[in-house]
Write a structure and sequence with these properties.
heterodimer; A: mainly beta; ten-stranded mixed beta sheet; B: alpha/beta; Rossmann fold; four-stranded antiparallel beta sheet; 25% strand; globular
Amino acid sequence: MDAIQRELLEAVSGLHEIPTGAYNIRADGASIERNSTANIEIIPKADTSGIEIHIKPGTRHESVHIPVIMSQSGLQEVVYNDFYVGDDADVTIIAGCGIHNGGDAASRHDGIHRFFIGKNAHVKYVEKHYGSGDGKGERIMNPVTEIHLGEDSFMEMDTAQIKGVDSTKRENKAHLEAGAKLVVMERLMTHGVQHAESYFDVQLDGEDSAANVVSRSVARDDSYQLFTSHIHGNNRCNGHTECDAIIMDNAKISAVPELSANHVDAALIHEAAIGKIAGEQIIKLMTLGLTEAEAEEQIVSGFLK
Amino acid sequence: MLELRNICFQVPDEKSRNTREIGILKDVSFTLEDNKFVVITGPNGGGKSTLAKIIAGIEKPTSGQILWDGQDITDMSITDRAKLGISYAFQQPVRFKGVTVFDLIRLAAGKEISIAGACEYLSKVGLCAKDYIKREVNASLSGGEIKRIEIATIMARKTRVSVFDEPEAGIDLWSFQNLIQVFEEMHDQLHGSILIISHQERILNIADEILLIADGELKKKGSKDEILPQLLGTADAAGACNKVKIRE
């Protein structure tokens, strides 16, 4: 790995070096490092590009890192990664993609992630997207996440895209069986002329399944954001979706929450709020000695924390 | 030393379709000496809060001057006044999504401080520090909690002038004595001056000086011993319920 690749790796996964535990590091279109453990096996797909991650039932407190870094301008790829999480497992999966584009051609990574989560399993999934480089070439990421949550399982998805991705279309779908729970926290910041769309489609199929899909975003400059979240209550269930956005400069934001109740005991709530930073928040921080610009920065970074 | 000279503050009168102006403050002058504990009191709507905002730089006076050690700071920004040494505690503290109590105290201190250091301020205002330090300063805090956090941020600033707008509002009686101690301690340790807007007799009682502002004017000014008996002896100072009794 060179310096740029190391910087990308750190930005998307917090890693300085090769991690312990199971991992697969993909750089410029190929897997450069891979490690399986006794409980977590990572194998390349035979027919297409991507990997399968098999986590044995009952695996406790282990982690999987699968960062993707791209520093070669003009590279375009679609990668299919499938996660099979065994019953009763409790694991953390850290994905993420960093693109450095110093050239004029667009670089693009589309990660298609599918999760098959067993009964009573517990998964924390962290995904960070980051772009850097001053070339004219666009940095594009179109992740797709498909989640199948087995009975009484739990998944927490923490997804962030704070800087440098020019165009993104994020599609997320989930099916939940009885007693399963999904918690999603999406944090997004767009600037310049960036364009970001995210879609969530959550099917609460099983009795007493529950989902909480929350998005916090900041749109600056001339950027555009679209947030769509559709929760289907197909059984006795609880669903909540919330979009909270700060709009700045000449940005545009659309929030489209949608609920469909297909069962009399489905309890579904949506909330959406878009607004600029409250003037009194800036004034309060100015009375503590911050300049207006510093106050704004502090409010935005707190909001996206 | 902070000096206010002939401060006037006018706003357009909406009833007259903005053709006339209403005087919120009319020719108010006073000097806040160093190391003094001054309480401003008076009826609601009399202009007290506006005066505090004018000192902090949040509102600009229509006319008049504000001097800091003789230097004219009338046109100085909120930020520069804060850096100069003026702190202002909001009557209705601002809430932030995502900004934690620790963030706010750290920003107030103006330097990196330890969690333990920040916790000390919270303990002084009667909050169990470990329960609060990581909490967001958002709508989940009660009125009394956020009011105490606001006071803690002012303590962390350690400035020469601290202005509090009705700090007692929302603070329960049980904690009230603590609050008095906080002000007394600030006064002793900082050697700065404290200006409190308050209706509370117990706060008026610890003042070196009391100012009475009503109808936008400075009506009375003097030591606690001079002013307090006059205030307590008038119908103005009585609560609404008592006034009803007097009329009956």
